[in-house]
Structure to design on (270 residues):
């Protein structure tokens, strides 16, 4: 194991796993509490449009995909804030349009894209120094925003009407939560791919919810659990020559199932 840690790509993968785990622990908690899981799924799949644009025009992948996802997210936020009844239709539209745009742009790009599958199922072992820098900046931004406006975000997450009456700019914070979610999805794609990104955002939060008493404790617990799941999944991926994304999600799912069984067994015994 010590020999494995001497490789720079393994070191980059571990650092990226830790950074993304903290990011998804914080934002995943907000996604679950605000019941934005399906919405996040729409953003995740529409991200393929940003990937297609980056490949077609030869642009930086993370930056291009981030800008594209933020653009889509702002449109969703503006269109859905007061008319939630149309949200499902809007998500389905952006989901299908983003995927279609990405596929067409990839088809139009000359040459075979050998790393295209990594965007669907993740490639944690291919993380670069620039990726880690981007993840670090995003994590610092998320921590700064969430903990500076923790009270406002907490009130918006649990009782929008009460927050509005208290003078909180709920539309602004609703949009901020969505934008941070979209950026989190983009960096998570590097770890587990856009197909499995929702699992990374929800499974650790599901397990953390068994013993968390507040939103803050849920964020911390989910981040630690995500680190644990990602590290085990990463080493399984490397040692058995498996895809990193599915390995991490399978590990997470096994522990989630165990937590579910233990909780229900305790309730049954009592």
């Amino acid at each position: 194991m010590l020999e494995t840690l001497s490789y720079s790509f393994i070191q980059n993968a571990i650092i990226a796993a830790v950074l993304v785990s903290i990011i998804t622990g914080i934002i995943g908690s907000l996604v679950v509490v605000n019941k934005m899981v399906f919405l996040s799924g729409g953003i995740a799949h529409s991200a393929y449009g940003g990937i297609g644009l980056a490949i077609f025009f030869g642009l930086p992948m993370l930056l291009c995909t981030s800008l594209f996802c933020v653009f889509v997210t702002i449109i969703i936020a503006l269109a859905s804030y007061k008319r939630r009844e149309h949200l499902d239709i809007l998500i389905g539209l952006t989901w299908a349009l983003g995927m279609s745009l990405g596929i067409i742009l990839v088809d139009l790009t000359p040459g075979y894209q050998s790393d295209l599958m990594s965007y669907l199922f993740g490639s944690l072992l291919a993380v670069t120094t620039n990726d880690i820098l981007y993840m670090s900046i995003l994590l610092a931004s998320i921590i700064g925003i969430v903990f500076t406006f923790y009270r406002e975000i907490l009130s918006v997450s649990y009782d929008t009407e009460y927050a509005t009456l208290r003078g909180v700019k709920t539309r602004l914070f609703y949009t901020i939560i969505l934008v941070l979610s979209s950026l989190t999805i983009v960096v998570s794609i590097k770890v587990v791919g856009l197909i499995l990104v929702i699992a990374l955002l929800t499974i650790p939060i599901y397990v953390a919810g068994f013993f968390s008493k507040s939103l803050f404790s849920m964020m911390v617990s989910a981040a630690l659990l995500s680190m644990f799941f990602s590290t085990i999944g990463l080493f399984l991926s490397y040692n058995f020559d498996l895809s990193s994304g599915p390995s991490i999600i399978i590990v997470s799912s096994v522990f989630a199932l165990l937590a579910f069984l233990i909780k229900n067994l305790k309730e049954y015994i009592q």
Q: What stands out?
A: The CA atoms of residues 145 and 176 lie 9 Å apart. The chain is about 80% helix and 0% strand. Residues 2-269 form a domain with the ABC transporter involved in vitamin B12 uptake, BtuC fold (CATH 1.10.3470.10). The chain has a mean pLDDT of 87.
